[in-house]
Amino acid sequence: MPAHDDIAALLSGSYINYFHCLKIIEILKETEADTKNLFGRYGSQRMKDWQDVVKSYEKENLYLAEAAQMLVRNISYEIPGLKKQIAKEEQMQAECEKKHTDYLKNEALCKSEFLNQCKQLGIQGEKIKRELVDRLQELPDIYDKIGKSLKPLLPGIELYAAFTKYALGDRATEVLPLLQYIVEHGNTTVYEWSYGEPPLSVEPDPIHIEFDDEEHAAGDKIDFGDAAIDFGSIDDAAGQIDFGDGEAAAEIDWGNIDNAGAGDLVSSLIYMIQNAKIF
């Protein structure tokens, strides 16, 4: 047989029928065109062999029996199988469309929640880190407003102080000193509250936040490096943790607000209120 891809594909199957033979003859009419004589006959032995096969099929209409057998097989098995496959694919398509719709709803919901959160924070949501850091510049004004808004508490503080003095007598101590100071002087530095005079200069705390990840994405892969981690030896005494001895080593110095620097009094008061425990 001539080297032809279509003929090789037809002959590669395990079953060759009448219609395959017709296709092979149509292909040979092109590949064996040079062997055709003046009377329209082909001198190629390959063409003659396949024409003989087709004539044998057409003798006494034998090809009709094979075609009927193929038709019955297609109706009984192939078509129902294809229908089941189509129904299965349509069901999968419907499920995918439903999931796609659900994902779109979830996307819209998440976007709406994100925009609401950004609106509550007062940012656009484009460069979140930078916008949140910019919002920190508004904290001093907010603390000043809080300090001024505490002035109506002065009568309540005086009443509480009078009640404490009446109930405890000479044992009464000064009540709410920090709150009284803020009501009278507003939002000052902790240094001024501690020493009674404002500091010569106030240096704001630096903000150590990197914005490189907003400018250049780091990628999806994590670079763990090539260096191995030395976990030490379990028998090595140097690998043990020294927790110290005695009660002195177990004490933690949490600092004292009286020794604080130049921070805002209102922020310190808010922190104390948030972390206060009432027994």
TrEMBL record:
<protein>
    <recommendedName>
        <fullName>CDK5RAP3-like protein</fullName>
    </recommendedName>
</protein>
<comment type="similarity">
    <text>Belongs to the CDK5RAP3 family.</text>
</comment>
<dbReference type="Pfam" id="PF05600">
    <property type="entry name" value="CDK5RAP3"/>
</dbReference>
<dbReference type="GO" id="GO:0012505">
    <property type="term" value="C:endomembrane system"/>
</dbReference>
<dbReference type="InterPro" id="IPR008491">
    <property type="entry name" value="CDK5RAP3"/>
</dbReference>
<dbReference type="GO" id="GO:0007346">
    <property type="term" value="P:regulation of mitotic cell cycle"/>
</dbReference>
